[in-house]
Structure formats: C-alpha cells, structure tokens
C-alpha cells in the first residue's frame, strides 16, 4: 500500500480538488467567453470606424474610397446583427468559433487599412486588438494561429498600392526603410502585448481555480467534522418509528400470549427494537458528550493529531515543545488549520532524508510552529515563488509529481485565513533542509 492510499480523507480531498481544478483549467469550458461581449466590442469598432471615415472624408476633406470603406464597415455591422438574431445573449463561444469571429474582425480591419494607405495609416496598430483579445481569453494554439494571420496581414499592408488619404496637393510617401520599421514596431508590439495578456490571464485563471479548490477542500473538511451532528440527527429521527414498533410489539405480545410460536417471534421483535433504541441512545449521548471535547483541544493534542498520520512512512518525526503544557493555549478545532499543517508536514516527510522536526513554542502573545526537514531544501529560484499554485518542483535536482503545487497553495491560503504568517526558508549553517515557520497571535488561535 503506497502513501497516497493511506493518507485518509485529507489527502483524498486534495486529490479531488486538484483533479476538478485541472479539468476546469484544461477543459474547453474554461476558455469560453460570451458572444454578447464580442458583439459589444464589435459595435464599438463599427462606431469608431464610421466616425473616423466621416471625419477624414467630410471634416478634413481628404480623398477617401468611401464606397469600399462603407462596404467593409457595413459587413461588420451586418455580421453583428446576424449574430445577435441567431444566438441568445448568453451564448458562449468555443475556441474554434471565437477564432473564426476574431479572424473575420482581423481581416475586416486589414482590408480597411489596405485601401487607406496600408502601413502608412496611423491606425495600423489596431491590428493588435483581436490578437490581444484572443491571447487573453482563448487557448494558446488558437491564439498563435491568429497571431500568424495578423503578421501576414501586417506584411500585406506593406505592399498596399493605395495612397494614404491626405491633402491633394501633397503626396505622402513612406520610404521602404520606414515601412520596415513600422512593420517591426507593429509585430513587436503585437507579440509583446499578446504574451503579456496571456501571462496575466493564465495566472488569474490559475489563481481563481486554486482558490476554488481551496474552498472545496475546506467544505469537505467541515463536512467530515460535522458527521457527529449528522449521527445525532439520525438517531433522533429514528427514535420515533422504533418507539412505535416497540409499542406495537407489546400489544402483539399481550394479544398472542397463548400462542407459543407467535409469542417467541413477537418477543424477538421487541427485544431487537429495544436493542436498536439502546444503540441510538448511546450514539446520541456519545455525540452530545464528545461535542465540546472535539470542538476544543490543547495545542499539543492538535499538533499530535496533525503528526500522527505521517509516522508510518520510514521518516522519523520529532516533536519539540518549548513551553509548559500547563499554560499552553486551548484551540478551537479548525478544519483549515488541521489540513494546512498536515499538508506542510506531509511535504516535509516527502522530501526529508531521514528526519522531520516539529517545534512548538508559545507564550502570552504568540504561538509558533516550526517544521524542519533534512532534505535538499529549496533552490533559490523556487524559494522566491513558494506558495504559487501548480508549482511542480521543490529543488532543481528533485522532481516529483504533485510536488509543491496546489496542495501547498491550499495549505498556505487556509493557514493565512486563520491569522497565521508563514515564512519559507532553508536551514542555517551546515544543516541541509527546509524550514517553515508558522506564527499566530495567541488570542486569534484560541478564538478560532
């Protein structure tokens, strides 16, 4: 039996949360946005293009191919109207549909720029907009395809034979070197903005998914802690029908007292119903008697509850208590604290060579728990990013599936919610290994 099979409900909860989040992250539903959002952006583009054409043609009196420009703007407006009529406002676009619509927007914008001066047009950088939208909301492979299309359109604009709308008496010519510079500026801006949008969007998605998994873990832990209340409720609900069965059995025993065969059956039925009532009574009294004991426990007992499941895997776990047990805080049982500390101890056991030490210290103001192991420790690049969701390596030379990813993020988030401050570092001096320091204000830990 491996460790994953014996870690119990907490480890299973993390696995369920991680798998659920990964399905959400990599599934097709996570990269869909509402059609109505794209429609509104398109109407904004229609209004902006129309206003620009009118200002250039009427206010500035520059020569402009009004009919082709109006056709292109009308095509975008017509496509918007058709999408609004054919699909409900809540329709969500899949990656392929989004790529098709954004490609249409890109080509429409490129054609409009092509007949109005190409790269000489000051609005040429607007080709970046569909690409940025795609990288911020769509899967990477679809976004890269749109980026390549945008670069091809930008290249085609460099060969536009149409002049830039300008004063009739002046001829605006862009030298090839300048066109090359404009092409590079648009291409670099497009690539940088797309990469930045993808990074920000991806990190936000990971963080949101990890927080959702944190809530799932916490809810499952709370559910487990409430099973005693559920048992008491079940005992209360079953008490009434059992009492009815007992009364009916007594009546049957009195009515069929002369019948030996029926009397034995009735007596058996009555005795078994009484036995069920006794079991439920003990279950109810056990829940009521142990509720307060389970809700409040000394700090040493809480730490022992955290450590106990991890003593069976060949790594020695030492507990050092710096303080008198007579003055130790009595804590409220908190599912988030138990899960968070258990996850940190489990990570220490996973990466330790032979020894894990848990040191507990308390005084009138604070409570400190320090978890140390004698493993390889944290590498410098990982130490600066510790606690981010979906990290997979602790040190460059140590690679393990699951590593310090979502589980550590959940543990860190739950402990910080309880008021703790966490510090991750490597041990000092010649002692190799990692150290995690968790500190609470004593009053906050006691109040739960």
Feature tags:
alpha+beta; 3 domains; two-stranded antiparallel ribbon; HisK_dim/P_sf; phosphorelay sensor kinase activity; single chain; 62% helix; cell membrane; disordered N terminus; elongated; 9 strands; 448 residues
Task: Compile the SSE list and pairings.
Layout: H1 3-6, H2 9-26, H3 35-59, H4 66-86, H5 95-114, H6 128-137, H7 140-157, H8 176-225, H9 227-255, H10 260-295, E1 296-298, H11 299-307, E2 316-322, E3 330-332, H12 335-351, E4 355-362, E5 366-373, H13 380-383, E6 393-395, E7 398-399, H14 406-417, E8 421-426, E9 434-441, H15 442-447
Parallel strand pairs: 2-4
Antiparallel strand pairs: 1-3, 4-5, 5-9, 6-7, 8-9
Helix pairs in contact: 2-8, 3-4, 4-5, 5-6, 5-7, 6-7, 6-8, 7-8, 8-14, 9-10, 11-12, 12-14
Question: Could you characterize what this model shows?
Answer:
- The relative contact order is 0.08.
- The chain has three domains: 7-215, no CATH class; 227-295; 311-447, Heat Shock Protein 90 (2-Layer Sandwich).
- It has helices at 3-6, 9-26, 35-59, 66-86, 95-114, 128-137, 140-157, 176-225, 227-255, 260-295, 299-307, 335-351, 380-383, 406-417, 442-447, and strands at 296-298, 316-322, 330-332, 355-362, 366-373, 393-395, 398-399, 421-426, 434-441.
- It has 448 residues and is of the alpha+beta class.
- Strands 2-4-5-9-8 form a five-stranded mixed sheet. Strands 1-3 form a two-stranded antiparallel sheet.
- Helix 9 (227-255) runs antiparallel to helix 10, helix 11 packs across helix 12 and helix 12 runs antiparallel to helix 14.
- The protein starts with a helix and ends with a helix.
- Mean pLDDT is 78; it is low at 1-29, 287-291 and 392-404.
- A hairpin with a 3-residue loop joins strand 4 and strand 5 (366-373).
- It is found in: Cell membrane.
């Amino acid at each position: 039996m491996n460790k994953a099979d014996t870690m119990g409900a907490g480890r299973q909860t993390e696995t369920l949360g991680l798998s659920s989040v990964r399905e959400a992250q990599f599934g097709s539903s996570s990269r869909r946005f509402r059609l109505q959002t794209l429609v509104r952006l398109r109407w904004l583009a229609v209004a902006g293009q129309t206003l620009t054409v009118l200002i250039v043609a009427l206010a500035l009196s520059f020569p402009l191919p009004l009919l082709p420009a109006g056709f292109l703007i009308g095509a975008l407006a017509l496509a918007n109207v058709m999408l609004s009529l054919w699909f409900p406002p809540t329709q969500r676009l899949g990656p392929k549909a989004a790529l098709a619509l954004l490609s249409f927007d890109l080509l429409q914008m490129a054609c409009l720029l092509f007949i109005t001066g190409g790269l000489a047009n000051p609005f040429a950088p607007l080709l970046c907009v569909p690409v940025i939208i795609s990288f911020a909301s769509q899967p990477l492979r679809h976004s890269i395809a749109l980026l390549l299309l945008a670069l091809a359109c930008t290249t085609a604009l460099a060969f536009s034979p149409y002049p830039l709308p300008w004063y009739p008496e002046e001829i605006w010519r862009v030298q090839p070197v300048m066109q090359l510079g404009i092409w590079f500026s648009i291409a670099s801006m497009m690539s940088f903005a797309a990469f930045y949008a993808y990074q920000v969007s991806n990190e936000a998605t990971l963080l949101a998914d990890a927080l959702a998994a944190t809530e799932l873990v916490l809810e499952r832990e709370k559910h487990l802690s409430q099973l005693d209340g559920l048992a008491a409720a079940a005992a209360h609900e079953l008490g009434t029908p059992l009492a009815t069965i007992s009364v009916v059995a007594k009546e049957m025993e009195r009515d069929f007292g002369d019948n030996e065969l029926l009397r034995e059956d009735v007596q058996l039925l009555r005795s078994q119903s009484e036995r069920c009532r006794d079991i439920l009574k003990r279950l109810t009294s056990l829940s009521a008697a142990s509720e307060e004991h389970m809700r409040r426990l000394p700090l040493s007992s809480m730490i022992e509850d955290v450590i106990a499941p991890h003593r069976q895997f060949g790594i020695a776990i030492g507990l050092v208590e710096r303080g008198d047990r007579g003055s130790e805080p009595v804590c409220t049982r908190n599912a988030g604290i138990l899960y968070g500390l258990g996850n940190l101890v489990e990570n220490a056991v996973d990466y330790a060579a032979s020894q894990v030490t848990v040191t507990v210290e308390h005084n009138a103001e604070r409570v400190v728990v320090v978890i140390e192991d004698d493993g390889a420790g944290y590498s410098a690049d990982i130490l600066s990013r510790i606690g981010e969701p979906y990290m997979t390596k602790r040190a460059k030379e140590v690679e393990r599936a699951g590593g310090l990813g979502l589980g550590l993020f959940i543990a860190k988030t739950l402990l910080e919610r309880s008021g703790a401050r966490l510090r991750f570092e490597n041990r000092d001096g010649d002692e190799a290994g990692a150290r995690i320091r968790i500190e609470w204000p004593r009053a906050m830990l006691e109040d739960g």
